């Protein structure tokens, strides 16, 4: 074959679709020829031979979607089909966000929450480092590609447990050493969750040297900032300071402004990003397209100082330290939380609470909502998750309209028939990418289809340094999604979250059909995309 020519035979041809190459360019009607795990040609391939042809006329053909922000390391070992992601057209995920890395977890008390989640599914936490975890995932097989960040909170727990103080010199050296090892083993950067224990105990002086190590290795710094509500501007400034001092590219995770009194602040936080970029800082953001977030009820309702330690320790303190409980109750009076907008998602001791608001449940008991929350958190394991309907749709649109914002689900991969089926995940788990393409492209015209696809493909690939993923062009890895722009839609709701979206026809991962006709094939062609080896 001479340079510039296409082969005359392919393993698979996608015939007659409308091709969106991922760059934001206008689509073209073309065939896509695939040989092995690569795109071999894009154009008129009507005269070529093919082992198989899929007729995709009338459908959009695009690079597989890259979910830049997930927590699927928590479930990948017992949900290797990654069905909730695959059915959205996602072919690659970045796990280990918000400072939480299952691969850096140890069988110690500080990691009780991680151990509880894996044990419930029959998985033993028996690896010692990120490399061991990634090998386990490879041996187990996975339907889509997985890359991971190294979580600061997990590094901190390895070095100093849940201590609410600055690290001493030895502890800091241990964190830096563990981070260097994780990066050598393939982590694509560093993440932090400064709203959570123990990340909340870190300051700028702790984060800068860690982010500097990530940057020196070619990684980036992704952060769930310290406050996404009243102090969101100060928290963005802190993240920018860390990145500038460390010389690290910055990823602002799931950007938003929580609670009505903070709506509209995103115009100012995006202006902060503008100013930092003008100074030369590489700053990008991600977002999920919903007006509710989901996290621990303690994070929603309690002042940060009250949530120290493990969930079990929190429960014990609330039961046996009346002074702490009263101080927390007083602080909760001014947190701006409307408990009619806080809906219980998962409460292990009270599954009947799922789907009901804190305000309604408290009214049933004749209680102040604060007392109901404190009573509930004092029971059993101390862990309850809740959805907080605290975001403004106008803010969601404003953020999504910014060209530096990519799409990230903030989800944990799930399946309707898996070990975590009884959970009530946020519907973003099943619907994020379809929701952007239906609600914000087709219905509200916030983005064009080609621009939305760019945010889901080449933009996250740029952040990750993946040169042959995120674009649909000859030589690229054949991670491809085929969908119907007229019918794609998210179907999952808070009441019925385990429902696949409509309109996703086929998904290919490295040239292998993983979803055909909207049905998972059971193939496990996914790869661990390690730094310096992923997509290059």
Task: Describe what is shown at a glance.
This protein is of the alpha/beta class. 32% of the residues lie in helices and 18% in strands. The chain contains 17 helices and 23 strands.
Molecular structure report:
By secondary structure, the protein is α/β, with parallel strands linked by helices. It folds into 2 domains: 306 residues, Metal-dependent hydrolases (TIM Barrel); 94 residues, no CATH class. It is 32% helix and 18% strand. It is built from 17 helices and 23 strands. The strands form 5 sheets. Strands 2, 3, 4, 6, 7, 20, 21, 22 and 23 form a 9-stranded mixed beta sheet that branches. Strands 11-12-13-14-15-19 form a 6-stranded parallel beta sheet, sandwiched between helices. Strands 8-9-10 form a 3-stranded parallel beta sheet, with no helix packed on it. A hairpin with an 8-residue loop joins strand 2 and strand 3. Helix 4 crosses helix 5. 55% of the residues are buried. The mean pLDDT is 95.
SSE order and pairing:
Blueprint: E1 9-10, E2 12-19, E3 28-35, E4 38-43, E5 49-50, E6 53-55, E7 60-63, E8 65-67, H1 83-86, E9 90-95, H2 112-120, H3 130-140, E10 145-148, E11 150-151, H4 152-160, H5 169-184, E12 189-193, H6 204-216, E13 220-224, H7 232-246, E14 250-252, H8 266-278, E15 283-287, E16 293-296, H9 297-301, H10 311-320, H11 322-332, E17 342-346, H12 358-365, H13 369-377, E18 385-388, H14 393-400, E19 405-407, H15 428-443, H16 449-456, H17 458-464, E20 480-483, E21 504-509, E22 512-516, E23 519-520
Parallel strand pairs: 1-5, 2-6, 2-7, 8-9, 9-10, 11-12, 12-13, 13-14, 14-15, 15-19
Antiparallel strand pairs: 2-3, 3-4, 7-20, 16-18, 17-18, 20-21, 21-22, 22-23
